## 1
Amino acid sequence: MIGPAERKRDFGTVMVAAVAAAIVMLVTLVRDASGAEVSLADINDPFGLPTVVVSADSSWATWRELQSQIQSEKRIIAQCRAQPHACPSPAALRFIALVKEGDQHEGLVRIGRINRAVNLAISAVIQTAWTSPLSALAAGVGDCKQYAVLKYAVLEEAGFAPDDLRLVVVRVKSLRNNHAVVAVRHAGQWFILDNRTLAVVESRKLLDYYEPLFVQDDRNGRQFVPPSGPKVAGLLQ
């Protein structure tokens, strides 16, 4: 006769096996067109959708170059913060002012203040190339790419962890064009910062408006996996 202790151990063994099987099934079901498995860690991206790494894509090289430029500009920003009267870059002083927009606030209010400040910092025009944050501020104009990179850098400078920031390319369904936005994680949820609006909206609420395509962070580049598999590449060219 099996006692309570044995039944408890057997139940625990069955539950562990069931969880393991579910994980294997999840990884098996979510694959890209070539059959590559999606990392479980990458399911924790905006919009609640899985992603697959495409770090060999030229888009990743573009993003890596932008990250390198952001790191170089951090040295100028630090110099200007320490000695504002001797700052060689008016754009760096404007960048510091954008960071300070959120200083007196917390949570979503802080994020919203920074989003608003960046949206108003440059004028919207059609651009063809990605540029660094200080280049965008120096020019005073840009399109969604300039707004997104600038927001990413300002949020990072404001103290948001790199793991809580994403640069995301989406397709605006109503316009049928690609669009760059920033996602920031707060209280376990991803919120989208878009230069077309001052509203800060939780990402899953925007799935009727956006088709998520591509996401970049400090680790790598990834494509969102739709039911039919990835279908875009080279979006940061």
Note: The first strand starts at residue 51 and ends at 53.
## 2
Amino acid sequence: MLFLRASSSRAAIPSRYLLANRLASTGLGQKRFYTLAQHKSDRHQLSFVRGTSVQVGTGQLVEDSIGTYWDRLIDRHGDRLGVVVKHENNLHWSFRQFGEQVDSLCRGLYESGLRKGDRLAVWMPNNSAWPTLQYATAKSGIVLVTLNPAYRKQELLQTLSLVECKSLVFVPSLKSSNFSQMLLELLPEIEHQSPNQLLTANLPSLRQLIVFDNETDVPETARIKGATKYQDLLIKNPSPTIDEHLQKERQGITNRDIINLQFTSGTTGLP
């Protein structure tokens, strides 16, 4: 399965980093905390090696955003095998089919009200929705928040509150963990509220719950009225207006925009 693990929207990241000066200036082993405003300063924008051929081959570093570079790759390699998920009825997608899924999800996220800079959390194991969400959010300027599937209620509440997530994608359960039940206990209001119009006391920023069930195919929306089925979010035959709006949104996305936030496991303390 194809996955992207990156903390910024740069399409190609060199393997070498300028660490020596940073360690010398901050003190080896010294713990530092930064606000978002401080992170955006020049000091924290110089982590990439500057130069023309820092990787094998010739040519310049790729300065495209991930969404732009991804579209070019599909044009070049669309017929090649892109995604295989054996536990989903041996699912096989070419890169072009994968790209169509990504674009369908981009439209659905836009229609649901998510915009550039909003945070969408993922609480589930490996499946076909995972890489689709990563590329769709990167193309849309939405920040993907990756949650450990082993999180319990306290860790979940901590992480979603800390980054003010607007949307959460989850599976009903995993092994002995019943995600749906934990959500109902944390957010009892969602049992009766309408999708995309959530308002909860414990998570005031949360507006949307999306459930992906690739095993039982039993919609959890029967239990959680405020949840939307992942498949219902995909828009495969859009109106021209949606794609026009999306194109305008993407014009403001650069390779400096944050595409995901990765929390610690929470094994030795709160994430």
Note: Residues 118 and 142 are 5 Å apart (CA to CA).
## 3
Amino acid sequence: MNRSILTFLLGLSLIFNVFFIIGAMTWRPSEKETEARIIKDVVDRLELDDRQADAFRYLRKADQEETGLIREQLTVNHDTMMQILASEAPDIDRLRKLANEDFELRSELHKVRMENHLGLVKLLTPRQRQRLAEQITHGRPPRRASREPRTFSEEVIMRFDVNGDGELDKTERREAHKFAKQQHRARRERARQLQQRFDLDKNGRLDLEEENAMRLYLLENGPGNLSRTPPAQ
């Protein structure tokens, strides 16, 4: 990967921090108004049409679910490490294990975010990608002064709350995280198959015509079907 592509991807990650990270672990009914404002900001800035806006909502929710589980585990690990450090006899081996797990989780978080960022890019027209590039050149969005408390979405709790106490314990959280990783791998594989399907000349990349065909297919099939592979051409 050459330097220009790396620079673009880094910039893409920065600008999408506004869209995907703000509220990423705060999917609660009391914050629907904030969520609507975030989506409206993206729709307005990139001038998304109705189908693209629906697709963005779908991708954003998927991103919140996937990154939310990872972020929750990072928070749990951080709290555990602080407790160990504050103890009279810190368990160094345990700290080392948690630090290694922290690194792996952050690496996974970066990959999930990038996949979701690129998922939206696939749906943009050349003009909209130009607008995105213009947003990137404006620099990194300002960080919030403080973070909102993080919690799991109601859907995740309902699915993995085996004991029915309304929260996810360590075992339930681990199962939720495992499921999220499986979902992410499956989506990546479907995305790979999708690109192969539209790569008609089999040169390993999509030209403008192939790219437009894939973009139209994704939009015409609706946000709920974005991850499905198309029928044989």
Note: The CA atoms of residues 126 and 208 lie 9 Å apart.
